[in-house]
Automatic annotation (TrEMBL):
Residues 3-114 form the Response regulatory domain. Keywords: DNA-binding, Phosphoprotein. This is LytTR family transcriptional regulator DNA-binding domain-containing protein. One of its GO terms (molecular function) is DNA binding. InterPro entries: CheY-like_superfamily, LytR-like, LytTR_DNA-bd_dom, Sig_transdc_resp-reg_receiver. The keyword Phosphoprotein applies. The modification 4-aspartylphosphate is found at D54. It comes from Flavihumibacter fluminis. Residues 141-243 form the HTH LytTR-type domain.
């Protein structure tokens, strides 16, 4: 059974969507919310597998709401704003549905969810601790008007920039309002390693390791970035990597 919540400021839209979803026995609607603040509470309390999310709501948008969650569930956007939605949101949501929602498009979106869940079942999470993010979890990254859903396994580097962190994945380097220390607490240390005061690297995405100045190491990542491992962290790194 897939547990879903509906987040939309229009009560009639929620009612209509709930009615359409009744035709899909594998989907159980376990909660609703009328704005972003309520949505965060519902998601954190009920831990749904899937969220049907409106973009334009009074106060914070659906994108703003997602950026405040520590871990992003699967999301299907429901919106009346075709062009706005596609420009603002670019990568990797399960789907977006234009209102009024069409039954066939809804079926297509739910099928995408089944495909995503099958892939996840083949790559189970490393940790059962809900507060610790595994490399198979996805996070929502928002930088200005650009937004991404990103699997942690695709992030090769976090770089400290004051109270922010720059996130490196693909050709993108957005900034998020998280300190490196806060990120380190949530990341699996078997995958994400604190190389020095300013960098956390994905151990799976290291291309080359070289000896470096003062007994340290120099890591070259698959994106071409070169990161120094401090002398103190080099000892830990060698133990972990059995060098």
């Amino acid at each position: 059974m897939i547990k879903a919540v509906l987040i939309d400021d229009e009560r009639l839209a929620r009612t209509e969507l709930r009615k359409l979803l009744s035709e899909f026995p594998e989907i159980e609607v376990i909660g609703e919310a009328a704005n972003a603040a309520e949505g965060i509470d519902v998601i954190e309390n009920l831990q749904p597998d899937l969220v049907f999310l409106d973009i334009q709501m009074p106060g914070k948008t659906g994108f703003d709401m997602l950026s405040e969650l520590g871990k992003a569930p699967h999301v299907i956007f429901t919106t009346a704003y075709d062009e706005y939605a596609l420009k603002a949101f670019e990568v990797n949501a399960l789907d977006y549905l234009l209102k009024p929602v069409d039954t066939k498009r809804l079926a297509d979106a739910i099928n995408k969810l089944h495909v995503a869940e099958e892939k996840e079942a083949m790559a189970p999470a490393i940790s059962s601790n809900r507060s610790l993010l595994s490399e198979h979890d996805q996070v929502f990254v928002k930088d200005g008007e650009r937004c991404w859903f990103v699997k942690l396994s695709d992030i090769r580097l976090f770089e400290s920039v004051g109270n922010y962190a720059k996130v490196f994945f693909g050709n993108n380097k957005p900034l998020i309002l998280k300190s490196l220390n806060a990120l380190e607490e949530r990341l699996d240390e078997k995958v994400f390693f604190r190389a020095n005061r300013k960098h956390i690297v994905n151990l799976r995405l290291i291309e080359k390791i070289e000896p470096y100045f003062n007994g340290g190491l120099l890591l070259e990542l698959k994106g071409g970035e070169k990161i120094e491992v401090s002398r103190r962290q080099t000892v830990k790194f060698k133990e972990m990597m059995s060098l």
